[in-house]
Amino acid sequence: MAGVSKGTVDRVLHKRGKVSEDAHHRVKTILNQIDYQPNPIARNLKKNKIYRICVLMPDWRIDPYWEPAEQGIQQAIEEFKPFGVTVDKFFYHPHEIQSFVTKANDILNSTPDVLVMVPLFQEESIKILEECREKNIRVALFNNHINTLNNEIFVGQDLYQSGKVAAGLIDKVSRCNAKIVVAHLDKEAHMELKENGFKSYFEEKKHSQINLISQSFHTDNDEKFNSDVSAFLELHQDICAIFITNSKAHKLIGQIKRSNSKITVVGYDLLEENIDCLRKGQIEFLIHQKPKRQAYLGICYFVEYFLFGKEVPTRMLLPIDIITSENVGYYLD
């Protein structure tokens, strides 16, 4: 169409080699006329390059919160496998640092193109990120955010803001002279962001009559956990609301019921046990963190970068959805 050789067109398209001004003008004119768009998938296939993404996340068979995230990863595997992208899953024990480090080192030794990671253990995660930078491995974090100097992306919620949302829900249903508890079950670093957001809400509202208490419990020993919670509720019989900063709100419900107290409960995540408590009116609100969507997007952004040259966003904050017994059905597959 331009009256030049294929080689000249190739040099114009890829901006390489010498092309006369006249030939360059004729090729560019035709490209504009036909609205030429390169096929990035075909280009990738021509390179014969297999991109490898490794996912490092807590074992969903130990903590069921992570099961939807594993489903999101599996969805990405099935969707992108035909395009020369492989995704390998590495699961670590959510309460064992050494398990995390061992799996991370296995990944680093295999030098993937991308690491998609849940950084539950902050100090160890920062070391892993530093090694990724040295080995030129791109990184995406999901669910848990950590502040580093690297160029990793983050997919998840604004945890500080979700804490403020929880406080606003409680403020709307509690009396003004309330005693409110922020409960951490098996505390992790990211929970402090939620607590800080929760506290900031009442500070900004200048609710001087609100009595906020922060309390941590461990759930690895059922007998001790039940005893600790029972003793705490006995000591604080005037609690009107509890904000549980992770997916384990259902574990507190049994003790709350035994205390015969009417306590407003706000928690996180659509575990079956939490949904059951929500429908029974034992939990008033759940904040949905969309772990399946987080994991899927963490992989999807890099696949689109490899295949289509799309820019990878540095942050993708998902909406903070408030789930009640009336709308929970719309969020279930």
Determine Rg (CA atoms, Å): 25 Å
Shape: elongated
Helix content: 40-55%
The name CATH uses for the topology of the largest domain is: Rossmann fold
Overall pLDDT level: 90
CATH class of the largest domain: Alpha Beta
| CATH superfamily membership of the largest domain | Response regulator
Question: Structural class, judged by helices and strands?
Answer: alpha/beta
What's the architecture of the largest domain in CATH terms? 3-Layer(aba) Sandwich
Q: Termini, distance in Å?
A: 52 Å
Overall tally of domains: 3
> What is the count of β-strands?
12
Low-confidence stretches: none
SS strand fraction: 15-25%
Q: How would you write the strand order of the largest sheet?
A: 2-1-3-4-5-11
How is the biggest beta sheet arranged? Answer: 6 strands, parallel
Helical stretch tally: 12
Helices and strands, in order, run as HHHEHEHEHEEHEHEHEHEHEHEE
What does this structure look like?
There is one protein chain. The protein is of the alpha/beta class and about 325 residues long. The chain has three domains: about 5-35, no CATH class; about 45-155 and about 290-320, Rossmann fold (3-Layer(aba) Sandwich), CATH 3.40.50; about 160-290, Rossmann fold. Helix content is about 45%, strand content about 20%. It has twelve helices and twelve strands. The chain has helices at about 5-15, 20-35, 40-45, 65-80, 95-110, 120-135, 160-175, 190-205, 220-235, 250-260, 270-280, 290-310, and strands at about 50-60, 85-90, 115, 140, 155, 180-185, 210-215, 240-245, 265-270, 285-290, 315, 320-325. It has a six-stranded parallel beta sheet with strand order 2-1-3-4-5-11, with helices on both faces. Strands 7-6-8-9-10-12 form a six-stranded mixed beta sheet, sandwiched between helices. It is elongated. It starts with 5 loop residues before the first helix and ends in a 10-residue tail after the last strand.
